[in-house]
Design goal:
The protein is of the alpha/beta class. The protein folds into 3 domains: 4-135 and 304-337, Rossmann fold, CATH 3.40.50; 139-300, Dihydrodipicolinate Reductase, domain 2 (2-Layer Sandwich), CATH 3.30.360; 348-432, 2-Layer Sandwich (Alpha-Beta Plaits). It is 36% helix and 25% strand. It is built from 13 helices and 19 strands. Strands 7, 9, 10, 11, 12, 13, 15, 16, 17, 18 and 19 form an 11-stranded mixed beta sheet that branches. Helix 1 crosses helix 11 (304-324). The longest helix is centred in the N-terminal third of the chain and has 21 residues, at 14-34.
């Protein structure tokens, strides 16, 4: 029986450094629980000179990924370099060379997971990717294993710590989006180029992976609706509070008969909703199964050590299979890869939900009735109205919330309203998830 599992790490950045630190700190504990030693045999990175604050034995570092991919003694390849290429090529080569793989590369899996999973299936190779969604939160294992007997009815998730930090800060302490973003960057919660986070691209990758696991199929990123948080203003935060909501960047997946409704956008949720109290840079998942009912997972969704914890959790799972001489016990996407088909998505125009509108209107009689008239003609019923005389650039804000309405009707109505001579600028729209609004 193999008592040493050799690992090769490609990518010695923040997460890769965390993996090394965790192995050094808890290596004996892991070995005791696993019944075998995890030996980090090689680390490949383009920069092997810069100090990471951890020391590794001489000869471990290399600038050539092939030193790992072609080494017959290495059992598991950990890919932590990120991006599409050459990460995709490296993983495919590892699979072809009969090496099991762990990755935290959500973008790669969202775009090319179908190819990678099918290749691994043909070769009888395991791919671990718990760290790709939710950092240290075991959401992938929960869906693939713990909830395997359930039909997943819905998932509502906060999956981007940067956006959640910004919205939490704006809500609890005030400040404009740009000011809070700068603070998040100074604290290391946001990248110098925050586009992937604030425009929802990072979160969309995670939603795509969750959809694939929950509904046993594949999706195309271009088929998923995405909106970021960069248009959220202090005004919208204040009105949300007044209406009894908090704004969160929410990833949503909801079963609608034989189709799946999937979308990612800023969402108003009631103050008493469990996700409304997930703040700062934390992530959370509210999953409803037809047997389990509500399951809530919460924790650090990113960061060096939390993500390293998830990576090594996958390494141990694969190592246990290696020790038993088996592989592929749990399919990467729940179903056997031969049965994977396209997920039937509900067209976004057919989505029905509640809405918040903020109009910038000229302060004169009859404006409210003209707006309400257009909404009524498009089958949109008003639930509440807030009209206050605080002028901005010569206009006053009119805020409305609606009962259930169809996205197609909403977009048609707003197109007509925004062309009115009494409405200045584009209407602000935020969707609402509130079971109390029928």
């Amino acid at each position: 029986m193999k008592r040493v599992i050799n690992l090769g790490l490609i990518g010695f950045g923040t997460i890769g450094t965390g993996v090394v630190r965790l192995l050094q700190a808890n290596g004996e504990l892991i070995a005791e629980r696993l019944g075998a030693k995890l030996n980090l045999k090689r680390i490949a990175d383009l920069d092997i000179v810069r100090s990471r604050g951890v020391s590794v034995p001489e000869g471990v570092l290399t600038t050539r990924a092939d030193d790992i991919l072609n080494d017959p003694e290495i059992d598991i390849v950990i890919e932590l370099m990120g991006g599409y290429e050459p990460a995709r090529t490296f993983i495919l080569k590892a699979i072809d060379n009969n090496k099991h793989v762990c990755t935290a590369n959500k973008a790669l899996l969202a775009a090319h997971g179908d190819e990678l999973f099918k290749s691994a299936n043909k070769k009888g190779i395991n791919i671990g990717f718990e760290a790709s969604v939710g950092g240290t939160i075991p959401v992938i294992k929960t869906i693939k294993e713990s909830l395997i007997a359930n039909r997943i009815e819905s998932i509502a998730a906060i999956v981007n710590g940067t956006s959640n930090y910004i919205l939490s800060k704006m809500t609890d302490e005030g400040g404009s989006f740009q000011d809070v973003l700068k603070e998040a960057q100074s604290l290391g919660f946001a990248e110098a180029d925050p586009t992937f986070d604030i425009e929802g691209i990072d979160a969309l990758h995670k939603l795509a992976i969750l959809l694939s696991l929950s509904y046993g199929g594949k999706v195309h990123l271009n088929d998923l609706h995405r909106e970021g948080i960069s248009t959220i203003t202090e005004q919208d935060i204040a009105f949300a509070k007044e209406l009894g909501y908090r704004i969160k960047l929410l990833a949503l997946a909801i079963r609608r008969g034989r189709k799946i409704e999937a979308r990612l956008h800023p969402t108003m949720i009631p103050l008493d909703h469990i996700l409304a109290n997930v703040n700062s840079n934390f992530n959370a998942f509210h999953i409803i199964g037809n047997a389990s009912d509500s399951v809530f997972l919460y924790g650090q969704g990113a960061g060096m050590m939390p993500t390293a914890s998830a990576v090594l959790g996958d390494v141990v799972d694969i190592s246990r299979d290696l020790l038993k001489g088996i592989a592929g016990r749990v399919p990467p996407r729940v179903l056997d890869e031969e049965k994977i088909q396209e997920i039937a998505l509900l067209p976004f125009a057919d989505v029905t939900t509640n809405y918040y509108f903020r109009f910038s209107a000229v302060d004169r009689p009859g404006v409210l009735s003209r707006i309400a008239g257009i909404l009524g003609k498009n089958n949109i019923s008003i639930a509440a109205v807030i009209q206050k005389g605080r002028k901005e650039n010569g206009a006053v804000p009119i805020v409305m919330t609606t009962y259930k309405a169809r996205e197609r009707d909403v977009q048609k109505a707003l197109g007509q309203i925004d062309r009115l001579d009494v409405v200045m600028g584009k209407t602000m729209l935020i969707r609402i998830e509130d079971k109390k609004l029928s």
